[in-house]
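The authors assume throughout that readers already know how a fold can be written as discrete tokens. A single example would do more here than another paragraph of explanation. An entry of this sort, consisting of the sequence and the corresponding backbone structure tokens, reads as follows:
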Amino acid sequence: MIPFAIILVILLAVLTYFLLIMMDIRTLITQLKFINQHTTNQQLKVKTRNAAVVALTQQINQLIAKQQATHQQSVQTQQQLDLAIHNISHDLRTPLTVASGYSQLLLSNENLPEAEHQQVSKLNQNLQTLSKHLNLLLLYNRLLENRITITPKQLNLSKLLTQTCLNYYDALQQKQIMTTLKIEPDIMWQLDEEATTRILQNILGNILDHGYQKATIELKHVDQGVQLTATNQLMTPIKNFDRLLDRFYTEDLSHRDQNAGLGLYIIVELSRMQGGQVSLNTNDLQFQIQVTFKIANQPKKNGA
């Protein structure tokens, strides 16, 4: 029989072996947590001589290296795309302005034959659509480059919303979208006027692009804040609701106009910069966007 002392030594050796392995694994887990929580090129390091642990560490490091390379390539691709958007947007602005000027000049010509007038009118509409998309791209580029400064001031949100709705009245009438306004008077809030105007314009623009027959715009006080809700009917149901906030994603819900797929993204970003929250809801042939500003989330007056 094997002496008890020898058995005890063997058991202690095995236990020590497993304890050392557990310590190595805990070290690896700690390092992995740090790598997962931070943007870093760090790889795993172990001091053990255990062949199995060393082999495991090497394999994990290979996976980390591949993931880091993929991430770096993705960042570079996104930077190249953003630069291309910046360059294309600015390159298009001047010729688009010139073309719009010529189309307006032709439309003002009373001697222009009716058939040609209709063609120029259609051209002018397309140029206006292109101009709207270009402005969205330029604003998107400013957001990417952090070139938008938020300067909150006491703003009459009710008046600003009413004026924005009036600016879109003719276009909504032309699209035969009956719009109901439920705006509480004289709602004051600390907001940046330019950024808030952009939010309202994009909300109205979204109704104009995708709305069908009826829309409702409501502004009211809620608990410790204000809430803007825009609801509109749709001609067709939304197919991919979860992708609506993706940049450049678009669905042709009205069968009328294509759009750049940036409007909702810009609404969310400009609202977030002012401490606001945006929620989207859809139910069959109805779409709703809700923007809420709460006192606790208001930005400081020197916010950026």
About this structure: The helical segments are 4-37, 51-107, 114-144, 157-167, 169-174, 193-210, 263-273. The chain is about 55% helix and 15% strand.
